[in-house]
Amino acid sequence: MVPSGIPRADEITGSLPDIIAGLDLPRVPQQDRSRQKRDALVAAAAQLFEECGYEATTADDIATAAGVSIGTFYSYFRNKRQVFLTLLARCVETLAALHIADLDIRTDPRGDIRATVHQAMGRDELFYGMRRAWTELLPRDPDLARYDRQINALIYAQILTAARRAAAHGLTHADLDLEATCWALTLLLDRAWQLQPRPGADPAADLARQQQALADLIYRALIREA
């Protein structure tokens, strides 16, 4: 789900860290042992969300999979939604760490774009559980739909800032509609997080090929050949 029409960059406010700050997240434990238990619950939830789906997973299931009591679960999380939001926050933190608006592609445009896409599309064992839960909840959860619109608008604003910098240095196509192109790229990236390896292919190698192809599409859409 994405906002209709191209957002006006001058009307986009806030930041990705602001979205994280606005989530209903539990406090992070200070002691290492407590953080390990919390992390074990998050990892167990991610695996169950991926295998069974969000609705089919209960707090009891998560506690059992993590090897702790249900009381221990509730000492760290108010409910399973807080676990999901913790997973979501990790993904938003990854996007914020890209600093797309600061990307300077004057020296090696293709290499820089490839590196950024590779970092953005990184996968770990927690990502897939978040992805399935997000896909399941998004169509019927107004709060998630709002987060989705905000995230897309902020990513668009960052891509547009980097593209305008490239245009100022004569790197982009002369007749390029920067706003429309950057919005189209935002929508493309919004779908690209669902990339999966093809059946029978080596998962890591196939995802790497897809990520490189995506980066090259972005490169060709924005950058003119010298």
Structure report:
The structure is a single chain. The protein has two domains: 63 residues, Arc Repressor Mutant, subunit A, CATH 1.10.10; 129 residues, Orthogonal Bundle (Tetracycline Repressor, domain 2). 64% of the residues lie in helices and 0% in strands. It is built from ten helices and no strands.
Short description:
The chain is mostly helical and 226 residues long. The protein is built from 10 helices and no strands.
Indicate the proportion of strand residues.
under 5%
Helical run tally:
10
Count of individual beta strands: 0
**What Rg, in angstroms, do the CA atoms define?**
19 Å
Mean pLDDT across the residues is 92
Give the helix/strand layout.
Layout: H1 16-22, H2 32-52, H3 59-66, H4 70-76, H5 80-96, H6 109-120, H7 127-137, H8 142-168, H9 178-192, H10 203-222
Which features characterize this protein?
single chain; 226 residues; mainly alpha; Arc Repressor Mutant, subunit A; Tetracycline Repressor, domain 2; 2 domains; elongated
